[in-house]
Amino acid sequence: MIKFFLKRLALTVPTFLALMFITFVAIRLVPGDPVEVRVGERGISPERLAYFRHELGLDQPVWKQFFDYVWNILHGDFGVSLATNEKVLTEFFTLFPATIELSFFAMLFASAIGIPAGAVAAVKRGSWFDQGLMALSVTGFSMPIFWWGLLLIMLVAERWGLTPVSGRIDLIKYYFEPVTGFMTVDAWLSGQKGAFLDALHHLILPAIVLGTVPLATIARMTRSSMLEVLSEDYVRTARAKGLSPFRVVGLHALRNALIPVVTVIGLSVGGLMAGAVLTETIFSWPGIGKWLIESIGRRDYPALQGGVMLVSTVVILVNLGVDVLYGVINPRIRHGR
Amino acid sequence: MKSLALAGMSLAALLTGATALSAKTLVYCSEGSPENFTPALNTTGTSFDAARPIFNKLTEFERGSTKVVPALAESWTVSDDGKVFTFKLRKGVKFHSVPGFKPTRDFNANDVLFAFNRQGDDKHPYHKISGGKYDYYSDMDMPKNVKSIEKMDDYTVKMTLNEPNAPILANLAMDFMSIPSAEYAEQLQKAGKLEQFDQVPVGTGPFSFVAYQKDAVIRYKANPDFWGEKAKVDDLVYAITPDPTARYSKLKAGECHFMIAPRPADLAEMQKDQTLKVINQPGLNIAYWAFNVQKPPFDKKEVRQAFNMAIDKAAIIRDVYLGAGQAAVNLIPPTLWSYNTAVKGYAFDQAKAKELLEKAGVKTPLEIDLWYMPVQRPYNPNAKRIAEMMQADLAKVGVNAKLVTYEWGEYRKRAQQGEHMTAQLGWTGDNGDPDNFFFLRGCSGARAGGQNITKWCNKDYDERLIKARGLSNQEARAKLYEEMQVIENEEAPDLKIAHSVVYEAMRANVEGYKQSPFGSHQFNGVDVK
Questions:
Q1: DSSP 3-state assignment of B260?
Q2: Which of A83, A158, A192 sits opposite B35 (nearest CB)?
Q3: For the range A8-15, what are the long-range contacts, defined as Cβ-Cβ under 8 Å and sequence gap of 24 or more?
Q4: CA A158 – CA A261 distance, rounded (Å)
């Protein structure tokens, strides 16, 4: 088991190196450096330009900048944001809880609906429910997040007034200092009446929007996995033993069918991060997606490089975790059979 | 559907059913996060807006205008040679308290000196803190202009200039000259926490800082000791909402009372909505198309005038600005003092343009280049589209324009070097002083690398420009500026395209808001009924 884990861990090293290289090069290919993008019509004197380039180390040869950057990251130093002068790591950890919270609820929404729906569709294969669900899941999977988000805001929040438009909490009613960065937890800890429910209420729309694509994936995956399992001998045996259909499907079949679904959920984390960028923008959600977008505009090299590296680390670690978990659930994987 | 909606609403009410606080709160849906809370370090309107409730300056702009009025300086005198400004400071002005700091003294001359020296003196303990880039201080030529700043006594400060410079009073009213607490700075220095100075600000303004959560919210509370026009609400909240569609939705839902920068496409619907109020004003900016007078045939006045007649400006305003623009006649917008209403500009008349070109001996088809910026600017939503429309108009008078562009930094540099024949550019005013626009056509900027990309240097214009700088009497200055506008119109070194119009939207129950020509936002004196 440990050997398996170490092997998987070793495989992440080239991924990290490639990532560092790509983020470093990509942002430098965009025209305009961090000093120049600040300058408006007035321009900047060559002396001042040279001075600030020097201060930021941009006058160093590119290979040296890259080497320093890798060296610093290996020492846990992700640098300082050029825009705010805050440590990139501090900014990341200030904003990341908002993204995790949103992703968690999006996944909760996707799994809570996707798994049962997929299972029912498999059991009632070919029924109107099955066909309707599959059609819906294709729609869900191809839904443009931006459009979907705005549509829900206009309909649910504006027209029907069922949810707030955006933000994480009612700013007029509630005010408390962040403790954990997770609004639901902080609202709970604040003890202010109604705050926790208000935080949940603010999560409804963004979680639905971010959870839509994973929901479609999970529902489809559960269905096909269930179909496969349902035709297995042991399910037929269970049926033959006279177990109730609920026990057969719910206990014997679903548990085994969920193994690939867990993998899909794990792998969706990467996609979730990509979706979070858009969802956070629409819902004014103060997470890392919005932060990264702004960093590109400002050519904030350290924030962007550090941010991408940190997000990637999370995605890679989750994938690694899923691999390992999968190995635990399914010994055949572990032994490379 | 209706019953579902009703059921949902009562569920929503149940979910949010919390105690409403009695305090009056104004929520402003702003655009982004500030870089920090020290305006001297920043360049963006977003950052200035975030710090403005907290700070005061020696002089300030009257709310909703470009007029410079006394603020922390109660009065001032100017020496006869125009070089020495003596400021009498306001007494009894209290600084805010923040966790860990309670002021022991009122505002005085030490705070003024701190504001100047942090930016101007590279040995100052705070000079290098938080990146130490003082772009505005440098761009407004403060290091060149200010020879010294001295404390005469606790409530008197003397500023000595190298050359007479009347517009400097307007510079002092700009955000970068905001005055923080020097006592707070010293306390943080002793504690070795200098960075906190720019994160948790202490000023004398109408609101004091409460909390900031990046990309989410900034909170302020009314300063009960404020010396000027007091806040009419108890709490001020900036809800950071970068997407304009989301801002509009929040405004409609009542989640905010005021929003920045509505999308032009939403304006018609907003104006129809009884629960909202929309106001507008031409911005303090100009989009222009510069003719490089050093390159024939633009050395001839008639050619430049002909080009002014050949372009259908009204079509550009309609199709590119979508109505959010006003055709420009002079370099300064009509909201600025000294605007000359007698100048009428050039009417669109392609037949006359052709005639003039012929008269000037220009052989058609004439080949020129037409540069356009690769980026959107506050004064120009789409330079490329404008260039294409100009190209089509020019073709009708026998001119073939080749469209050219470069990466933005490169574009600016090359245009300032004078590599173009014609180029679009523009300007956003900094301090509401006409000099801040007219210098764009001055002789000192006409050298290679200078700001004047027409490279036009006219003695009559330039003499007046320099003379006006040395006068402290505003009427006398205005007269000179009015004359300069006549000269510039006749000489036509450029075609003035437009001043963009800035819109602001708020809930109908917001009262007392005054739109700033600078595009800045200020909420003391604003009430929610």
A1: coil
A2: A83
A3: A8/A320, A8/A323, A8/A324, A9/A320, A12/A316, A12/A320, A15/A312, A15/A316
A4: 36
> What distance in Å separates the CA atoms of residue A8 and residue B506, rounded to the nearest whole number?
56
Mean pLDDT (chain B, rounded): 92
- Across chain A, the runs of DSSP E, i.e. the strands, are none
**Contact between A171 and B5 using a beta-carbon 8 Å cutoff:** no
Distance CA B403, CA B391 (A): 8
**Chain segment A173-229, per-residue pLDDT in tens:** 999 988 999 999 999 999 999 999 999 999 999 999 999 999 999 999 999 999 999
Contact A163 B12 (CB under 8 A): yes
Domain boundaries, chain A: 89-298
The CA distance from A253 to B297, in Å, is 85
Is the CB of A290 less than 8 angstroms away from the CB of B255?
Answer: no
Distance between CA atoms of residues B13 and B7, nearest Å = 10
CA distance A321 to chain B (A): 31
Residue B422 · residue B371 · CB < 8 Å: yes
CA distance B78 to chain A (A): 29
In this complex, which of A158, A197, A201 lies closest to B249 when CB atoms are compared?
A158
Q: With 70 as the cut, is the pLDDT of residue B120 above it?
A: yes
Flag residues of chain A having pLDDT under 50.
Answer: 337
Higher pLDDT, B460 or B447: B460
* Chain B neighbors of A91, CB-CB under 8 A: 214
Task: Please provide the DSSP assignment of B339-384 as one string.
Answer: --TT-------HHHHHHHHHHTTPPSSEEEEEE--SS-BTTBS-HH
Q: Do B36 and A164 touch (CB under 8 A)?
A: no
- Find tokens 């579902």 and name the residue: B4
Measure in Å the smallest separation between the Cα of A273 and chain B Cα atoms. 17
Residue B300 has pLDDT above 60, yes or no: yes
**Which residues of chain B does A158 touch, with a Cβ-Cβ cutoff of 8 Å?**
249, 252-253
Residue by residue, DSSP assigns B166-179 as TTHHHHHTSGGG--
pLDDT per position as a tens digit, B30-85: 988 998 999 999 888 899 999 999 999 999 999 998 889 999 999 999 999 989 99
User: Residues 199 to 238 of B: which have CB under 8 A from any A CB?
Assistant: 211, 213-217, 219, 237
Model pTM score: 0.88
* A–B interface: beta-carbon pairs under 8 A: 156
Instruction: Give the 3-state secondary structure of residue B75.
Output: strand
CATH architecture label of A89-298: Orthogonal Bundle (1.10)
Asked if the model's pLDDT at residue B7 lies above 50, the reply is no
Cβ <8 Å between A161 and B216: no
